[in-house]
Specification:
The structure holds two protein chains of two kinds. Chain A is an alpha/beta fold. Helix content of chain A is about 30%, strand content about 25%. Chain A has a six-stranded antiparallel β-sheet, covered by helices on one side.
């Protein structure tokens, strides 16, 4: 499973420009950006010959400037003119399929050059649509699971969920390197506008999305096949000795979805215990709510049945 | 395929059941109103951040320090601080200890606010007997020197730039107000005179006042006003407190105090400060929507009545250490404090005893946005109120439903911006029930779309909406 990466140790990203200019104070033309990239990467590699260098982190695959920049960068890298270890890009959308298209697009860019087959792909900022977020508290955690599963299936190398914690900005800290308009934008965006991104909000309260990433972290070890999923119902399962973890969720890609009644069976487990836990996204505490704890042998008489409304998720842990 | 040990297969059998999705319909019994925000016309400058905050006198710890960033975003101009005996400012004759107080002051400065220093401490060396009715120190000369050194330390040595110095806290009710002084009108005026004289000697620009009455009608207030009116005392501000669920009661006290001051022409510049206020502490209204709307409604009245400043009580609920209070309060007074703060449920703080946020925080956040040029809003009524201001490229409108009589009724409000044709409009609702995302974005779109799809919101009693127009 592609886990969200929160550490950049050993990874150097040359983030030259964004079409949206959300975070970057300068806008550079593609060729000028390549020049800047070349100098920057040269210095990085001189200091750390094994450092991985990459970029350019455009705001979206739809950015015309980002597309042009990637063409210039991949072409130059394929000719051996610049080191290029990873191609990174951003996305904010409420539909996980948008990210699939973005990954396909970026992989298509790399596939044009045999020499770039080793280049990693990273979505290093992603979340719901920031302008029009969906505030059903169940949505964001299910969106994290659904989107991350597709990262895995599409072969994305890494991702960085944006972000860990919403935080206020100090305009005086930005003024030395941002224009007054840019500083005003940052201060307004982070200090006045309601934010919905962080695993923790500006008051340091955990959002339910935290638990989605927690559950994903449990899917580690030997992956186990799960049959019976469908277009809306998804699951991932893994054995990490001595526990088996299953995470399942209802994420309708079309329309508003429907309630799903699900029976979960463990075809080869005969002993041990089963704990069924539901994410209660609307609760202020005890968000991971234990629904049932039962011995595996009891499942034959009393199967594990659960109802998943759209965007609801369950976690099942089997202890051998 | 790699063989898995103890291969396990999880089988999901899904069957599909229909679900019903209902959306709340606009109530047919709702009253329809049209609010018109005139973005082309300014009513003059407005800045409501002088209606600010206070922190209870509960601990020598810098109680708000770990929330300084969040409080700073409310842009309070002042935060009232109890200069209480637990800071141990005067441990022995002619010995001063400032470090603990400095930490509390610096926590306030970290928010961008300036402290209002409420002087309510009672050093043991000047008050050997614990008795709240003993208000005069054993040596007024030594007391004045202590106050002089305190002000000098703050404004000369540390350069804190503190303007407001308030003499005593709820001295009309003694220990029940959380401080060890119970004054009579006569001894308050005398104590005030000695204290203010020392403050002004250290800092001639300092603003001095009091008496931070628990009851606006206390004769302590009359005594102070009369002595100042007759030129016997300096008085820059008159302060009092109130806890009540009805905003009109606060407004009445402002009228009352302004009338008292008006009797003396030389007091016409005296500021009025309501420096502790909140819902009724004994009979709070616990509908989570109430407190934020109560803050908006009451503060609007402060502004309209011309109140100079206020300090909402308070930033953070906090436990008290009974042993600490027993050093300067009676056994009964200490037990009262410990019971009130440690055992009784509390509803005051923007943060509760667990450091969890209350929705009231967002009322102050929204008030802080009403800064710049005030814009007139037509169509409000006795229940439905609004404030609007242009600040740079943004126009902010805050509207709320606060029924002053009865249980109120819902309003369907159509909000119009007749002179604004470009830009975006974001509509946000305060959702006080949600554990996160309390400022819930309802819509975000081009203002030009409003001609086709008017901006309509339904405000049930105590509901609050915030509309931001980016031009």
């Amino acid at each position: 499973m592609t886990a969200t990466s929160v550490s950049i140790t050993g990874w150097w990203k040359m983030k030259a420009t964004l079409a949206s200019l959300r975070d970057v104070p300068t806008s550079l033309r593609p060729k000028a950006t390549l020049w800047y990239y070349t100098h920057t990467v040269s210095a990085i590699r001189r200091a750390g010959p094994h450092a991985k260098a990459g970029g350019p982190a455009p705001g979206s695959y739809l950015s015309l400037f980002g597309r042009a920049l990637i063409d210039v960068l991949t072409g130059s890298a394929a000719r051996g003119e610049v080191p290029f270890d990873f191609l990174c890009f951003h996305g904010y959308a409420n539909d996980p399929r948008w990210f699939w298209k973005e990954i396909d697009y970026m992989k298509g860019k790399l596939a044009k050059y045999r020499q770039l087959s080793h280049v990693e792909t990273m979505i290093d900022q992603w979340n719901m649509d920031l302008g029009n977020p969906i505030l059903d508290p169940n949505f964001q955690p299910a969106f994290v699971l659904e989107t991350t599963q597709s990262f895995y299936q599409k072969g994305l190398t890494r991702s960085s969920y944006y972000q860990i914690r919403d935080y206020f900005v100090d305009p005086n800290a930005f003024l030395p390197f941002f224009s007054p308009a840019g500083t005003g934008f940052m201060a307004h965006w982070w200090n006045e506008m309601p934010q919905f991104d962080g695993l923790y909000d500006k008051q340091n309260r955990a959002r339910p999305a935290y638990y989605a990433l927690k559950l994903l972290s449990l899917i580690k070890g030997e992956q186990l096949p799960v049959t019976g999923t469908n277009h809306d119902l998804h699951a991932v399962a893994a054995r990490g000795e001595p526990w088996i973890n299953v995470v399942l969720w209802n994420f309708p890609l079309e329309g508003k979805g429907k309630m799903l009644d699900v029976i979960v069976r463990f075809a080869f487990e005969k002993r041990g215990g089963v704990r069924l836990v539901r994410l209660i996204a609307g609760a202020s505490v005890n968000n991971l709510e234990q629904v049932r704890s039962v011995g595996v042998p009891d499942l034959e008489a009393h199967p594990l049945r659960l109802s998943l409304r759209p965007y609801v998720m369950y976690w099942i842990e089997v202890t051998e | 395929m790699k063989k898995m040990r103890g291969f396990t297969e999880a089988v999901l059998l899904a069957c599909f059941l229909p679900i019903l999705v209902s959306s709340p319909a606009r109530g047919s019994d709702n009253t329809s109103v049209v609010l018109v925000v005139d973005t082309a016309k300014s009513s003059g400058p407005i800045d409501l951040t002088r209606y600010a905050l206070g922190q209870g006198g509960l601990s020598e710890q810098p109680m708000i320090l770990d929330r300084a960033d969040q409080i700073g975003q409310l842009h309070p101009r002042t935060i009232r601080l109890f200069v209480q005996e637990y800071f141990d400012l005067y441990p022995a004759h002619h010995e001063y200890h400032w470090a603990t107080l400095d930490r509390a002051i610096e926590a306030i400065l970290a928010t961008g606010a300036k402290p209002i220093m409420n002087l309510c401490f009672k050093p043991r060396v000047l008050y050997p007997q614990i008795n709240h009715e003993i208000v005069d120190p054993t040596d007024y000369g030594e007391w004045e020197e202590l106050i002089y050194q305190l002000v000098k330390h703050c404004n000369e040595e540390r350069k804190y730039g503190i303007e407001y110095w308030e003499v005593a806290n709820e001295g009309d009710i003694g220990e029940s107000g959380g401080c060890p002084y119970k004054f009579t009108p006569q001894n308050y005026v005398s104590y005030y005179q000695h204290t203010v004289s020392a403050i002004r000697r250290a800092d001639p620009q300092a603003k001095v006042g009091g008496p931070a009455l628990a009851s606006a009608k206390s004769p302590l207030g009359d005594a102070l006003i009369d002595s100042a009116g007759q030129g016997q005392n300096a008085l820059d501000f008159l302060s009092w407190h109130l806890y009540n669920n009805d905003p009109r009661e606060f407004w009445k006290t402002i009228d009352y105090m302004q009338a008292k001051l008006a009797k003396y022409p030389n007091l016409k510049n005296v500021e009025t400060i309501l420096d502790e206020w909140n819902m009724s502490l004994r009979n709070p209204v616990l509908n989570p929507s109430f407190q934020p709307a109560f803050i908006l409604e009451t503060t609007l009245g402060f502004y309209q009545k011309g109140l100079s400043r206020s300090s909402y009580y308070h930033i953070r609920d906090y436990f008290v250490d009974a042993a600490t209070f027993s050093r300067f309060m009676s056994a009964r007074g200490t037990a009262f404090m410990a019971h009130w703060w440690n055992d009784m449920p509390q509803y005051d703080g923007l943060y509760d005893n667990q450091n969890r946020l209350r929705p009231a925080y967002y009322a102050f956040k929204l008030l802080s946005l009403i800064k710049g040029e005030q814009l007139p809003v037509a169509g409000t009524n006795s229940d439905l109120n609004a404030l609007a201001a242009r600040g740079g490229p943004w126009v902010n409108v805050v509207l709320w439903n606060f029924p002053l009589e009865g249980s109120g009724k819902p309003y369907d409000a159509t909000v119009q911006f007749p002179s604004t044709t470009n830009g975006d409009v974001r509509v946000v609702r305060l959702n006080p029930d949600s554990p996160t995302n309390n400022l819930e974005q309802i819509s975000n779109g081009a203002i030009s779309d409003l001609a086709r799809r008017p901006l309509r919101v339904t405000l049930r009693p105590y509901e609050i909406y915030w509309i931001e127009v980016s031009e």
